[in-house]
Amino acid sequence: MNIVKKFIQKLYESNLDRRKIISQLRRYHDKKYINTELLSMLLGVFKVQETRVKDIMIPRTKMVIIKKNSSIEEILPLIINSAHSRFPVILENKDEIIGILLAKDLLKYISEDVDTFSIDNIIRPSVIIPETKKLNILLSEFKSGRNHLAIVVDEYGGVSGLITIEDVLEQIVGDIIDEHDTVQNSNNIKKLKNLSYSLNGATTLEEFNDFFNCNYISDKYDTISGLLINKVKGLPKTHDTILVDGFKFTIKISDQRRIHNIQVDIKQ
Question: What is the architecture of the domain spanning 55-173?
Answer without folding.
Answer: Roll (3.10)
